[in-house]
Specification:
There is one protein chain. The chain is mainly β. The protein has a domain of 149 residues. The chain is 6% helix and 39% strand. The chain is built from 4 helices and 31 strands. The protein has a 4-stranded antiparallel sheet. Strand 16 and strand 17 form a beta hairpin. The chain starts with a strand and ends with a strand. The relative contact order is 0.09. It catalyses: methanethiol + O2 + H2O = hydrogen sulfide + formaldehyde + H2O2 + H(+). Its EC number is 1.8.3.4. One of its GO terms (molecular function) is selenium binding. One of its GO terms (cellular component) is nucleus. It is found in: Nucleus; Cytoplasm, Cytosol; Membrane.
């Protein structure tokens, strides 16, 4: 059935408003008088957490267990390193906070911090990828929560196998594999994007392949200096041994696949060219693909291009060469009439017009995406990372971020 509400993490960090972050509940029922409006706000108990992502307490890989239900939402905090657990099952239109794990517990028990992306494991536990250590140095890996009590169990991987950085991950149980991306060094990237950080190891470059059952690192792929692999997804078909990873700064999308026995390989399948510009922080503006999602039927791949401002739809085919079949601009830094002038563009003949919805100009660029349950609607938010939001889209920070339905 069609979803009737959406849960959106909202942060006040870097806005000069001293209020706690909150979880917004948005009415998605087109027959409701409140359709498209925020109908409930659940404020967190602390300031400046930076709610960045969210994940269900159980996923599709747990559905063979009849007791597993999507009634809890896990909210890790990118800056404070807290973990909130929200009950969305008792009252879906008015969620409530049911558990909180303090940063000191994460620091002492796991020596981890800067928590990013959450997914549930096949055994029902909850896995959270992290970007750094408590001091903000780069350190990848994962922390584990008990899937029933949500107690912090510790680290998932062996201490000696923690990657230099981390951010996103996904897995395929039938192939006993988990693949994770690189992310950034928090204490440097957290100050904002600085071109001088390029070639200094601030932005990750590795794609990591793990043995899911043994929690051991089995392969690493170097995707190039400052490639910054962020979003990683497997195909939905549980028998499929392939997926895609989006490299934000290089604009390259790689396909990773199982080639023989337990060995994996990567190949470049999409390259979004940078645009030569004036009036921007660098003479060339990369695509900066924040998010990548795949339709439930594995027919289409969607990319959000935070700097350029477009959402791209690619058709996935058996020859493994995705084909661009759809594109829509919902903001970005190259809009007509803005401070940036595009001097050379390999794709567009002219700069796109600003997006106006219900008489309101939309600022920012497309960031996090989510497909509807039937795959017919795409929900998009325009906030990426508070300090980067303020740096590149200060008007969005003042006016407030939005969620768009496409």
């Amino acid at each position: 059935p069609r979803e009737e509400v959406a849960y959106v993490t909202c942060t006040y960090r870097s806005t000069c408003i001293e209020q706690p972050d909150f979880l917004a509940t948005v009415d998605l029922n087109p027959r409701s008088p409140c359709y498209g409006q925020v109908i409930h706000r659940l404020p967190m108990p602390n300031l400046k957490d930076e709610l960045h992502s969210s994940g269900w307490s159980s996923g599709c890989s747990c559905f063979d267990n009849g007791t597993m239900k999507r009634n809890k939402l896990v909210l890790p905090c990118l800056i404070s390193s807290r973990i909130y657990v929200v009950d969305v099952g008792s009252q879906c239109r008015a969620p409530r906070l049911c558990k909180m794990i303090e940063p000191v517990d994460v620091f002492w028990k796991c020596n981890k911090g800067y928590l990013a992306v959450t997914h549930s494991l096949p055994n029902g536990d909850v896995l959270i990828a992290n970007m750094g250590d408590p001091a903000g140095n780069g350190k990848g890996g994962f922390v584990v929560l008990d899937g029933e009590t949500f107690e912090l169990k510790g680290n998932w991987e062996n201490e000696c196998e923690a990657p230099p950085t981390g951010y996103d991950f996904w897995y395929q149980p039938r192939h006993n594999v988990l693949v994770s991306s690189a992310g950034m060094v928090p204490k440097r990237a957290g100050r904002g994007f600085n071109p001088e950080d390029l070639k200094k190891g601030v932005f990750g470059r590795r794609l990591n392949v793990w043995n899911l059952s043994c929690h051991s690192l089995i392969q690493c792929f170097d995707l190039g200096e400052d490639s910054l692999p962020l979003s990683v997804k497997f195909l939905h078909n549980p028998d499929a041994a392939e997926g895609y990873v989006a490299c934000a700064l290089s604009g390259v999308i790689y396909r990773f696949y199982k080639c023989e026995r337990d060995n994996w390989a990567v190949e470049e399948v999409i390259r979004i060219p940078a645009k030569e510009v004036s009036g921007w922080i660098m003479p060339k503006m990369p695509a900066f693909t924040v998010d990548l999602i795949i339709s439930p039927d594995d027919r289409f791949l969607y990319l959000s291009n935070w700097f350029h401002g477009d959402i791209r739809q690619y058709e996935l085919s058996k020859n493994c060469k995705p084909r661009l079949v759809g594109q829509v601009f919902v903001g970005g830094s190259i809009l007509r009439g803005g401070p940036v002038t595009v001097c050379r563009d390999e794709e567009l003949k002219c700069q796109p017009e600003p997006l106006v919805v219900k008489c309101k100009r939309i600022y920012g660029g497309p960031s996090k995406m989510q497909l509807s349950l039937d795959g017919r609607r795409l929900y998009v938010t325009n906030s990426f990372y508070s300090t980067w939001d303020k740096q590149f889209y200060p008007t969005m920070v003042r006016e407030g971020s939005v969620m768009l339905q496409i």
